[in-house]
Design goal:
The structure holds two protein chains of two kinds. Chain A is mostly helical. Chain A has eleven helices and two strands; from the N terminus they run βαααααααααβαα. The N terminus of chain B is likely disordered. The chains are: A mainly alpha, B alpha+beta.
Chain lengths: ~240, ~240
Protein backbone atom coordinates (compact mmCIF):
# COMPACT_ATOMS: atom_id res chain seq x y z
CA UNK A 1 0.00 0.00 0.00
CA UNK A 2 1.31 3.38 -0.95
CA UNK A 3 2.05 5.81 1.85
CA UNK A 4 1.20 8.79 -0.34
CA UNK A 5 -2.41 9.98 -0.23
CA UNK A 6 -4.12 10.20 -3.59
CA UNK A 7 -3.13 13.63 -4.90
CA UNK A 8 -5.59 13.63 -7.77
CA UNK A 9 -8.76 13.28 -5.80
CA UNK A 10 -11.27 15.16 -7.94
CA UNK A 11 -13.71 16.39 -5.29
CA UNK A 12 -14.10 16.81 -1.56
CA UNK A 13 -12.07 19.17 0.55
CA UNK A 14 -8.70 17.57 0.05
CA UNK A 15 -6.00 19.72 -1.46
CA UNK A 16 -5.27 18.93 -5.07
CA UNK A 17 -2.82 20.59 -7.41
CA UNK A 18 -5.65 22.28 -9.33
CA UNK A 19 -7.99 23.28 -6.56
CA UNK A 20 -6.96 25.19 -3.46
CA UNK A 21 -9.40 25.23 -0.54
CA UNK A 22 -10.12 28.85 0.34
CA UNK A 23 -13.18 28.53 2.60
CA UNK A 24 -14.29 25.29 4.21
CA UNK A 25 -17.96 24.38 4.64
CA UNK A 26 -18.12 25.92 8.13
CA UNK A 27 -16.88 29.26 6.82
CA UNK A 28 -19.19 29.27 3.85
CA UNK A 29 -22.27 28.43 5.93
CA UNK A 30 -21.28 31.12 8.46
CA UNK A 31 -20.78 33.68 5.70
CA UNK A 32 -24.09 33.05 3.96
CA UNK A 33 -26.08 32.82 7.20
CA UNK A 34 -24.53 36.13 8.21
CA UNK A 35 -25.35 37.57 4.78
CA UNK A 36 -29.00 36.51 5.01
CA UNK A 37 -29.32 38.05 8.48
CA UNK A 38 -27.69 41.29 7.30
CA UNK A 39 -30.10 41.32 4.35
CA UNK A 40 -33.13 40.88 6.60
CA UNK A 41 -31.88 43.58 8.97
CA UNK A 42 -31.18 46.03 6.15
CA UNK A 43 -34.51 45.42 4.40
CA UNK A 44 -36.55 45.77 7.58
CA UNK A 45 -34.51 48.85 8.52
CA UNK A 46 -35.86 50.77 5.53
CA UNK A 47 -39.49 51.11 6.68
CA UNK A 48 -38.38 51.55 10.28
CA UNK A 49 -36.28 54.58 9.30
CA UNK A 50 -37.94 56.12 6.26
CA UNK A 51 -41.52 57.18 6.89
CA UNK A 52 -42.20 57.14 3.14
CA UNK A 53 -41.38 53.42 3.00
CA UNK A 54 -43.29 52.80 6.22
CA UNK A 55 -46.42 54.37 4.75
CA UNK A 56 -46.11 51.99 1.78
CA UNK A 57 -45.61 48.74 3.68
CA UNK A 58 -47.23 49.37 7.09
CA UNK A 59 -47.12 46.42 9.49
CA UNK A 60 -44.83 48.34 11.80
CA UNK A 61 -44.98 45.96 14.75
CA UNK A 62 -44.32 42.86 12.61
CA UNK A 63 -41.36 44.49 10.87
CA UNK A 64 -39.94 45.75 14.16
CA UNK A 65 -40.26 42.23 15.58
CA UNK A 66 -38.45 40.68 12.58
CA UNK A 67 -35.70 43.30 12.84
CA UNK A 68 -35.30 42.64 16.56
CA UNK A 69 -35.06 38.85 16.20
CA UNK A 70 -32.72 38.97 13.22
CA UNK A 71 -30.51 41.27 15.29
CA UNK A 72 -30.52 38.99 18.30
CA UNK A 73 -29.65 35.95 16.15
CA UNK A 74 -26.97 37.85 14.19
CA UNK A 75 -23.93 36.80 16.29
CA UNK A 76 -24.89 33.10 16.25
CA UNK A 77 -23.35 31.98 12.90
CA UNK A 78 -20.07 33.76 13.61
CA UNK A 79 -19.77 32.60 17.21
CA UNK A 80 -20.75 28.99 16.46
CA UNK A 81 -18.35 28.79 13.51
CA UNK A 82 -15.49 30.10 15.64
CA UNK A 83 -15.96 27.88 18.67
CA UNK A 84 -15.58 24.14 18.60
CA UNK A 85 -13.32 21.74 16.75
CA UNK A 86 -14.87 22.65 13.38
CA UNK A 87 -13.62 26.24 13.59
CA UNK A 88 -9.87 25.73 13.04
CA UNK A 89 -9.76 27.34 9.62
CA UNK A 90 -12.12 30.10 10.75
CA UNK A 91 -9.88 30.94 13.70
CA UNK A 92 -6.77 30.87 11.53
CA UNK A 93 -8.38 33.33 9.10
CA UNK A 94 -9.46 35.63 11.94
CA UNK A 95 -5.83 35.81 13.10
CA UNK A 96 -4.79 36.46 9.52
CA UNK A 97 -7.35 39.26 9.24
CA UNK A 98 -6.28 40.87 12.51
CA UNK A 99 -2.50 40.93 11.97
CA UNK A 100 -1.20 43.20 9.25
CA UNK A 101 2.24 43.80 7.86
CA UNK A 102 3.37 47.39 7.45
CA UNK A 103 3.06 46.91 3.69
CA UNK A 104 -0.59 46.05 4.10
CA UNK A 105 -1.18 49.22 6.13
CA UNK A 106 0.51 51.20 3.35
CA UNK A 107 -1.63 49.39 0.77
CA UNK A 108 -4.81 50.41 2.56
CA UNK A 109 -3.79 54.07 2.85
CA UNK A 110 -3.22 54.16 -0.89
CA UNK A 111 -6.35 52.07 -1.54
CA UNK A 112 -4.22 49.60 -3.46
CA UNK A 113 -2.95 52.23 -5.89
CA UNK A 114 0.83 52.25 -6.50
CA UNK A 115 1.03 50.16 -3.37
CA UNK A 116 3.26 47.31 -2.25
CA UNK A 117 2.31 43.94 -3.69
CA UNK A 118 0.13 41.88 -1.37
CA UNK A 119 0.59 38.12 -1.27
CA UNK A 120 -1.59 37.10 1.67
CA UNK A 121 -4.87 35.19 1.43
CA UNK A 122 -6.89 38.39 1.81
CA UNK A 123 -6.01 41.84 0.58
CA UNK A 124 -6.21 44.73 3.07
CA UNK A 125 -9.53 45.86 1.61
CA UNK A 126 -11.07 42.47 2.34
CA UNK A 127 -9.52 42.49 5.78
CA UNK A 128 -10.83 45.92 6.71
CA UNK A 129 -14.29 44.88 5.47
CA UNK A 130 -14.29 41.88 7.79
CA UNK A 131 -13.06 43.94 10.74
CA UNK A 132 -15.67 46.62 10.08
CA UNK A 133 -18.46 44.05 9.93
CA UNK A 134 -17.34 42.52 13.24
CA UNK A 135 -17.18 45.93 14.95
CA UNK A 136 -20.47 47.02 13.42
CA UNK A 137 -22.20 43.87 14.65
CA UNK A 138 -21.16 44.52 18.24
CA UNK A 139 -22.07 48.22 18.17
CA UNK A 140 -25.39 47.68 16.38
CA UNK A 141 -26.32 44.90 18.78
CA UNK A 142 -25.39 47.02 21.82
CA UNK A 143 -27.25 50.12 20.68
CA UNK A 144 -30.14 48.01 19.42
CA UNK A 145 -30.54 46.42 22.85
CA UNK A 146 -30.74 49.91 24.36
CA UNK A 147 -33.42 50.93 21.85
CA UNK A 148 -35.45 47.86 22.72
CA UNK A 149 -34.96 47.76 26.48
CA UNK A 150 -34.67 51.51 26.94
CA UNK A 151 -35.99 51.61 30.49
CA UNK A 152 -32.60 50.75 31.96
CA UNK A 153 -30.74 53.81 30.61
CA UNK A 154 -31.34 57.58 30.87
CA UNK A 155 -33.09 59.40 28.01
CA UNK A 156 -29.84 61.04 26.86
CA UNK A 157 -28.25 57.62 26.40
CA UNK A 158 -31.25 56.37 24.44
CA UNK A 159 -30.86 59.36 22.16
CA UNK A 160 -27.13 58.68 21.83
CA UNK A 161 -27.82 55.02 21.07
CA UNK A 162 -30.35 56.03 18.41
CA UNK A 163 -27.78 58.39 16.90
CA UNK A 164 -25.04 55.72 16.82
CA UNK A 165 -27.42 53.04 15.51
CA UNK A 166 -28.52 55.29 12.63
CA UNK A 167 -25.10 56.69 11.67
CA UNK A 168 -23.58 53.22 11.68
CA UNK A 169 -26.53 51.87 9.68
CA UNK A 170 -25.69 54.35 6.92
CA UNK A 171 -22.05 53.21 6.97
CA UNK A 172 -23.14 49.55 6.86
CA UNK A 173 -25.28 50.18 3.78
CA UNK A 174 -22.30 51.77 2.02
CA UNK A 175 -19.88 48.98 3.00
CA UNK A 176 -22.28 46.14 2.19
CA UNK A 177 -23.20 47.63 -1.19
CA UNK A 178 -19.46 48.01 -1.88
CA UNK A 179 -18.84 44.41 -0.76
CA UNK A 180 -21.54 43.09 -3.12
CA UNK A 181 -20.16 45.32 -5.88
CA UNK A 182 -16.69 43.81 -5.51
CA UNK A 183 -18.16 40.32 -5.37
CA UNK A 184 -20.07 40.60 -8.63
CA UNK A 185 -17.11 42.21 -10.41
CA UNK A 186 -14.65 39.64 -9.08
CA UNK A 187 -16.37 36.39 -9.94
CA UNK A 188 -13.46 34.17 -8.89
CA UNK A 189 -13.59 35.55 -5.37
CA UNK A 190 -17.39 35.16 -5.27
CA UNK A 191 -17.13 31.57 -6.58
CA UNK A 192 -14.64 30.79 -3.82
CA UNK A 193 -17.27 31.75 -1.25
CA UNK A 194 -19.86 29.59 -3.01
CA UNK A 195 -17.95 26.40 -3.80
CA UNK A 196 -15.06 26.82 -1.39
CA UNK A 197 -12.02 26.52 -3.64
CA UNK A 198 -10.02 28.60 -6.09
CA UNK A 199 -7.98 27.39 -9.05
CA UNK A 200 -4.29 27.15 -8.28
CA UNK A 201 -3.59 29.63 -11.10
CA UNK A 202 -5.77 32.21 -9.34
CA UNK A 203 -4.02 31.68 -6.03
CA UNK A 204 -0.60 32.00 -7.65
CA UNK A 205 -1.60 35.30 -9.23
CA UNK A 206 -3.54 36.92 -6.36
CA UNK A 207 -2.23 35.32 -3.19
CA UNK A 208 1.14 33.63 -3.82
CA UNK A 209 2.19 33.91 -0.17
CA UNK A 210 -0.93 32.11 0.95
CA UNK A 211 -0.49 29.46 -1.75
CA UNK A 212 3.01 28.85 -0.42
CA UNK A 213 1.64 28.46 3.11
CA UNK A 214 -0.99 25.97 1.96
CA UNK A 215 1.65 23.98 0.10
CA UNK A 216 3.87 23.87 3.19
CA UNK A 217 0.95 22.86 5.38
CA UNK A 218 0.07 20.13 2.91
CA UNK A 219 3.64 18.90 2.87
CA UNK A 220 3.61 18.80 6.65
CA UNK A 221 0.35 16.84 6.68
CA UNK A 222 1.74 14.40 4.13
CA UNK A 223 4.86 13.83 6.21
CA UNK A 224 2.75 13.24 9.30
CA UNK A 225 0.57 10.80 7.40
CA UNK A 226 3.64 8.96 6.17
CA UNK A 227 5.05 8.85 9.70
CA UNK A 228 1.84 7.64 11.26
CA UNK A 229 1.42 5.02 8.55
CA UNK A 230 5.02 3.90 9.08
CA UNK A 231 4.73 3.77 12.86
CA UNK A 232 1.46 1.85 12.63
CA UNK A 233 3.13 -0.59 10.27
CA UNK A 234 6.07 -0.91 12.66
CA UNK A 235 3.73 -1.54 15.59
CA UNK A 236 1.93 -4.30 13.75
CA UNK A 237 5.19 -5.91 12.63
CA UNK A 238 6.82 -5.81 16.06
CA UNK A 239 5.87 -8.17 18.88
CA UNK A 240 2.86 -7.14 20.97
CA UNK A 241 3.68 -4.77 23.85
CA UNK A 242 7.15 -4.25 22.49
CA UNK A 243 7.46 -0.55 21.86
CA UNK A 244 10.36 0.82 19.85
CA UNK B 1 12.19 53.11 13.46
CA UNK B 2 14.68 51.43 11.18
CA UNK B 3 13.95 49.46 8.06
CA UNK B 4 17.46 48.12 7.74
CA UNK B 5 16.61 44.59 8.77
CA UNK B 6 17.66 42.37 5.88
CA UNK B 7 15.07 39.73 6.69
CA UNK B 8 11.49 40.92 6.14
CA UNK B 9 10.43 39.56 9.51
CA UNK B 10 8.56 42.62 10.65
CA UNK B 11 6.34 42.72 13.67
CA UNK B 12 2.71 42.41 12.61
CA UNK B 13 0.48 45.39 13.37
CA UNK B 14 -2.70 44.33 15.16
CA UNK B 15 -4.92 46.39 12.88
CA UNK B 16 -7.89 44.12 13.38
CA UNK B 17 -7.89 44.40 17.13
CA UNK B 18 -7.31 48.16 17.02
CA UNK B 19 -10.05 48.95 14.52
CA UNK B 20 -12.48 46.58 16.21
CA UNK B 21 -11.90 47.96 19.70
CA UNK B 22 -11.87 51.48 18.29
CA UNK B 23 -15.31 50.98 16.78
CA UNK B 24 -16.71 49.49 19.97
CA UNK B 25 -15.20 52.35 21.98
CA UNK B 26 -16.57 54.98 19.63
CA UNK B 27 -19.97 53.33 19.84
CA UNK B 28 -19.90 53.50 23.63
CA UNK B 29 -18.81 57.16 23.55
CA UNK B 30 -21.60 57.83 21.05
CA UNK B 31 -24.22 56.36 23.37
CA UNK B 32 -23.10 58.53 26.28
CA UNK B 33 -22.26 61.72 24.35
CA UNK B 34 -24.37 61.32 21.19
CA UNK B 35 -27.23 63.46 22.46
CA UNK B 36 -24.88 66.37 23.23
CA UNK B 37 -23.10 65.99 19.87
CA UNK B 38 -26.45 66.06 18.09
CA UNK B 39 -27.55 69.18 19.95
CA UNK B 40 -24.30 70.95 19.08
CA UNK B 41 -24.56 69.90 15.43
CA UNK B 42 -28.11 71.23 15.31
CA UNK B 43 -26.92 74.52 16.85
CA UNK B 44 -24.10 74.87 14.35
CA UNK B 45 -25.90 73.71 11.23
CA UNK B 46 -29.40 74.89 12.02
CA UNK B 47 -32.42 72.71 11.65
CA UNK B 48 -32.25 72.87 7.84
CA UNK B 49 -29.05 70.88 7.46
CA UNK B 50 -29.81 68.93 10.59
CA UNK B 51 -32.56 67.21 8.64
CA UNK B 52 -29.95 65.62 6.39
CA UNK B 53 -28.12 64.04 9.28
CA UNK B 54 -29.16 60.58 10.27
CA UNK B 55 -30.95 60.84 13.57
CA UNK B 56 -31.06 64.60 13.06
CA UNK B 57 -34.72 65.39 13.25
CA UNK B 58 -36.73 62.81 11.42
CA UNK B 59 -39.96 61.53 12.76
CA UNK B 60 -40.06 57.79 12.87
CA UNK B 61 -43.57 56.78 12.03
CA UNK B 62 -45.21 54.18 14.20
CA UNK B 63 -48.57 52.63 13.61
CA UNK B 64 -49.75 49.76 15.71
CA UNK B 65 -51.89 48.36 12.93
CA UNK B 66 -51.03 47.32 9.41
CA UNK B 67 -52.20 50.46 7.69
CA UNK B 68 -52.89 54.09 8.44
CA UNK B 69 -56.55 54.95 8.84
CA UNK B 70 -57.57 57.32 6.04
CA UNK B 71 -60.10 59.83 7.33
CA UNK B 72 -61.55 62.55 5.13
CA UNK B 73 -61.38 65.82 7.09
CA UNK B 74 -65.03 66.62 6.35
CA UNK B 75 -66.08 63.21 7.70
CA UNK B 76 -64.00 63.48 10.85
CA UNK B 77 -65.86 63.21 14.17
CA UNK B 78 -64.60 63.34 17.76
CA UNK B 79 -66.86 61.72 20.34
CA UNK B 80 -66.74 62.90 23.94
CA UNK B 81 -68.66 60.52 26.18
CA UNK B 82 -68.65 58.92 29.64
CA UNK B 83 -68.99 60.90 32.84
CA UNK B 84 -70.08 64.14 31.19
CA UNK B 85 -73.29 66.11 31.40
CA UNK B 86 -73.28 66.95 27.69
CA UNK B 87 -71.87 64.21 25.40
CA UNK B 88 -70.39 65.80 22.29
CA UNK B 89 -69.76 64.89 18.70
CA UNK B 90 -67.35 67.43 17.28
CA UNK B 91 -66.45 67.97 13.64
CA UNK B 92 -63.11 69.35 12.50
CA UNK B 93 -64.87 72.67 11.86
CA UNK B 94 -66.23 72.65 15.44
CA UNK B 95 -62.69 72.24 16.78
CA UNK B 96 -61.30 74.93 14.49
CA UNK B 97 -64.01 77.32 15.68
CA UNK B 98 -62.86 76.98 19.31
CA UNK B 99 -60.03 79.18 20.71
CA UNK B 100 -56.74 77.82 19.37
CA UNK B 101 -53.46 77.22 21.17
CA UNK B 102 -50.05 77.04 19.51
CA UNK B 103 -47.07 75.16 20.90
CA UNK B 104 -43.50 74.84 19.63
CA UNK B 105 -41.81 71.92 21.36
CA UNK B 106 -39.29 69.15 20.89
CA UNK B 107 -41.06 65.91 20.11
CA UNK B 108 -39.33 63.24 22.17
CA UNK B 109 -39.81 59.52 21.66
CA UNK B 110 -39.30 57.27 24.65
CA UNK B 111 -36.85 55.15 22.61
CA UNK B 112 -34.51 58.09 22.07
CA UNK B 113 -35.19 59.90 18.82
CA UNK B 114 -36.43 63.44 18.90
CA UNK B 115 -37.54 66.18 16.55
CA UNK B 116 -36.75 69.70 17.75
CA UNK B 117 -39.00 72.73 17.30
CA UNK B 118 -42.16 71.06 16.10
CA UNK B 119 -45.02 73.49 15.64
CA UNK B 120 -48.45 72.39 16.87
CA UNK B 121 -51.86 74.02 16.79
CA UNK B 122 -55.12 72.84 18.30
CA UNK B 123 -57.66 73.18 21.05
CA UNK B 124 -56.81 72.83 24.71
CA UNK B 125 -58.15 69.51 25.93
CA UNK B 126 -59.44 71.32 29.01
CA UNK B 127 -61.65 73.51 26.76
CA UNK B 128 -63.16 70.40 25.17
CA UNK B 129 -63.78 68.93 28.64
CA UNK B 130 -65.37 72.18 29.83
CA UNK B 131 -67.67 72.18 26.82
CA UNK B 132 -68.82 68.66 27.72
CA UNK B 133 -69.04 69.52 31.45
CA UNK B 134 -67.28 66.75 33.37
CA UNK B 135 -69.38 65.18 36.15
CA UNK B 136 -68.07 64.90 39.71
CA UNK B 137 -66.43 61.55 40.38
CA UNK B 138 -64.55 61.59 37.08
CA UNK B 139 -60.85 60.76 37.51
CA UNK B 140 -59.33 60.00 34.13
CA UNK B 141 -59.76 59.97 30.36
CA UNK B 142 -59.55 57.08 27.93
CA UNK B 143 -58.71 57.85 24.32
CA UNK B 144 -59.33 55.63 21.33
CA UNK B 145 -57.90 55.86 17.83
CA UNK B 146 -59.47 55.44 14.40
CA UNK B 147 -56.94 52.66 13.82
CA UNK B 148 -59.14 50.56 16.11
CA UNK B 149 -56.26 49.31 18.27
CA UNK B 150 -54.34 52.13 19.88
CA UNK B 151 -55.62 53.53 23.14
CA UNK B 152 -54.26 56.03 25.64
CA UNK B 153 -55.06 57.42 29.05
CA UNK B 154 -54.52 60.60 31.05
CA UNK B 155 -55.64 61.59 34.51
CA UNK B 156 -58.03 64.51 34.62
CA UNK B 157 -55.34 66.70 36.18
CA UNK B 158 -52.87 65.83 33.42
CA UNK B 159 -55.52 66.47 30.76
CA UNK B 160 -56.26 69.94 32.14
CA UNK B 161 -52.69 71.17 31.65
CA UNK B 162 -52.42 74.04 29.14
CA UNK B 163 -49.83 72.11 27.08
CA UNK B 164 -52.15 69.18 26.36
CA UNK B 165 -54.10 69.81 23.18
CA UNK B 166 -56.36 68.21 20.61
CA UNK B 167 -54.20 69.10 17.61
CA UNK B 168 -55.36 69.65 14.04
CA UNK B 169 -52.29 71.45 12.65
CA UNK B 170 -48.65 70.39 12.84
CA UNK B 171 -45.41 71.40 11.09
CA UNK B 172 -47.17 74.39 9.51
CA UNK B 173 -50.05 72.56 7.84
CA UNK B 174 -52.95 70.20 8.39
CA UNK B 175 -51.79 67.01 10.11
CA UNK B 176 -51.04 64.37 7.50
CA UNK B 177 -52.38 60.83 7.75
CA UNK B 178 -49.02 59.34 8.71
CA UNK B 179 -48.64 61.88 11.51
CA UNK B 180 -52.09 60.97 12.86
CA UNK B 181 -54.30 63.45 11.02
CA UNK B 182 -56.68 65.01 10.65
CA UNK B 183 -56.91 65.22 14.44
CA UNK B 184 -54.62 63.75 17.10
CA UNK B 185 -53.69 64.26 20.69
CA UNK B 186 -50.55 66.19 21.59
CA UNK B 187 -49.37 65.76 25.18
CA UNK B 188 -46.35 68.07 25.23
CA UNK B 189 -44.90 67.18 28.66
CA UNK B 190 -44.83 63.45 27.96
CA UNK B 191 -43.09 61.00 25.60
CA UNK B 192 -44.48 60.66 22.10
CA UNK B 193 -46.48 57.48 22.67
CA UNK B 194 -48.87 59.45 24.89
CA UNK B 195 -49.81 61.65 21.91
CA UNK B 196 -52.38 59.32 20.40
CA UNK B 197 -52.82 59.50 16.65
CA UNK B 198 -56.11 59.55 14.70
CA UNK B 199 -58.08 60.51 17.81
CA UNK B 200 -61.63 59.20 17.52
CA UNK B 201 -63.13 59.28 21.02
CA UNK B 202 -62.56 60.61 24.51
CA UNK B 203 -64.29 58.76 27.33
CA UNK B 204 -64.38 60.34 30.79
CA UNK B 205 -64.02 57.54 33.34
CA UNK B 206 -63.62 56.98 37.07
CA UNK B 207 -60.24 55.21 36.97
CA UNK B 208 -57.09 55.16 34.78
CA UNK B 209 -57.31 52.49 32.07
CA UNK B 210 -53.75 51.83 30.81
CA UNK B 211 -53.47 52.24 27.05
CA UNK B 212 -51.96 50.12 24.29
CA UNK B 213 -48.29 50.96 24.88
CA UNK B 214 -48.67 50.87 28.66
CA UNK B 215 -49.91 47.30 28.33
CA UNK B 216 -46.57 46.48 26.65
CA UNK B 217 -44.66 47.92 29.58
CA UNK B 218 -44.39 51.66 28.93
CA UNK B 219 -44.99 53.90 31.97
CA UNK B 220 -48.61 55.03 32.31
CA UNK B 221 -47.35 58.49 33.23
CA UNK B 222 -44.76 59.08 30.53
CA UNK B 223 -43.27 62.37 31.75
CA UNK B 224 -40.29 63.58 29.74
CA UNK B 225 -38.28 64.05 32.92
CA UNK B 226 -38.57 60.34 33.64
CA UNK B 227 -40.77 60.62 36.71
CA UNK B 228 -43.53 58.05 36.74
CA UNK B 229 -45.99 59.51 39.24
CA UNK B 230 -49.31 61.09 38.25
CA UNK B 231 -47.69 64.56 38.42
CA UNK B 232 -44.26 65.39 37.02
CA UNK B 233 -41.45 66.63 39.21
CA UNK B 234 -41.05 69.93 37.38
CA UNK B 235 -44.64 71.16 37.53
CA UNK B 236 -45.90 72.44 40.85
Amino acid sequence: MSANPDRNQPSGEALTPQRIIRFDLVQRVAHWANAVLFGILMLTALPLYFSSVESLVGRHLLIAEIHLWAGLVLPVPLVVSLLGPWGARMRRDIRRISRWTKDEVRWLWRAGWKAPRITDKFNPGQKINAIFVAGAMVVMLGTGLILKWFNVVPVDWRQGATFVHEVLAFAIFIVVIGHIGFAVTHRDALRAMVRGWVPETWARKHAPGWLEEEREAEALRTTKTVRSVESRAAATAGSRGDLP
Amino acid sequence: MTESSPVPLEQPVRVGRRVFLGMVGLGAVGIVAGAAVQRRLADVLGSGLGRLLPGGDNFQIYSVTNTFPLIRPDRYRLEVTGLVERPLTLTLADLEAMPSTQLVKTFQCVTGWQVPDVHWEGVKLSDVLDAARVKPGAVALSFTSYDGTDTESLTLDQARRPDVIVAYRMLGGPITTEHGGPVRLYVAPMFGYKSLKWLSAIRVVDRVEPGFWEQSGYPVNGWLDGSTGPTDTTSG
